[in-house]
Amino acid sequence: MSFDTTLYLTAVITLFVIMDPPGVIPVFLSLVGRKSREARNRAAWQAPAVSLAVITVFAVGGQAILNYLHIGIPALQGAGGLLLLIIALELLTGRSANQMQGAEDVNVALVPLGTPLMAGPGAIAAVIVFVSQADGQTSSYLAIGLAILTIHLILFLALRFSTVLIRLLGDGGITLLARIAGLLLAAIAVQLIADSVRGFIAGG
């Protein structure tokens, strides 16, 4: 059994572009910057772990799940876009930070970091497509699996070592970062909704 290096590299690059580890950092810091060091470090591994679990589930049975629920990729994109837009508005208005200061038990590693920011509609759709193109070949499945593990290791390292920036930023820097992250998230959300609308039009 030969390892499909081309498919592995293609999948890693595709998921890197879609999941955008550098782009996740400002959102991560804006959400966990005021939490304790232990909470920040915990979120740094929990968010990629949640994303890995979601992506793995959809890699194994994603198409079957979507078919059973009669859900298309455009619907997934629309739902993810709306959820991210809500989070973006909270970051822009500062409401999210205030809420989390008063509620330390809020686990942002689950939502919005783990999903839909990391394991979003784009990443889910890409994985489903890669698996459908594997044609039952074990080497292809192995390449896709290792690619998924690789991108999540990159995400973990990016988040884990980004926490050192918090000491340099301070409260003012984190607030500014939250506003920038909110603007970026809003743009991502609008793009997802636009892609969803285009998908519905093309499908119709």
UniProtKB/TrEMBL annotation:
Pfam families with a match to the protein in the record: MarC
Origin organism lineage: Bacteria, Bacillati, Actinomycetota, Actinomycetes, Mycobacteriales
Domain of life, per lineage: Bacteria
Stated name of the protein: UPF0056 membrane protein
Transmembrane segments: 6-32, 44-65, 71-94, 106-129, 141-161, 173-194
The keyword Membrane is annotated on this UniProt entry: yes
Key words, A-Z: Cell membrane, Membrane, Transmembrane, Transmembrane helix
Membrane topology of this protein: Multi-pass membrane protein
Principal cellular location given in the protein's record: membrane
A single cellular component GO annotation: plasma membrane
Cellular localization per UniProt: Cell membrane
Sequence similarity: Belongs to the UPF0056 (MarC) family.
